Amino acid sequence: MAMKRALRNVGTSFVLCWKKETNWAGAWVYLPFALIRPLAGALLIFVMVRAASAPPGYFAPAYLGNAFFGLVPAVLGGLAWAVIEDRERYQMFKYIYLAPGNVVPYLMGHGLARAAHALIGIAALVAARDEQSLEPAR
Fold this sequence. Notes:
Layout: H1 2-21, H2 27-51, H3 59-69, H4 71-89, H5 93-98, H6 103-127, H7 131-134
């Protein structure tokens, strides 16, 4: 019973954070932004590698590292920003903390929502990679 309630709280927190992160926009409005943002970052990495005249095979680790590294600050920063943003900006964290239940499922939902946002970017970058430019030099 307690586990079911905790999972429901995590799901509610996930939906709330998802809507807050997408600025309450619909999925079709937010999807282009979610795809363009990581692709623009990858384009920046591409331009830096080409401008530095890096040796062949250098782009693959930089590209994939950029893609997967977005998950780390999204989750860890998402948990910290959940507390800071809800406490300072929305002034709601005190009510969440005082409400019956636990604040941990609330923070877990925020972390999962931020991870889902990052995974959309990772999926876009992995799908958009060019196999020939990612191969090491021979």
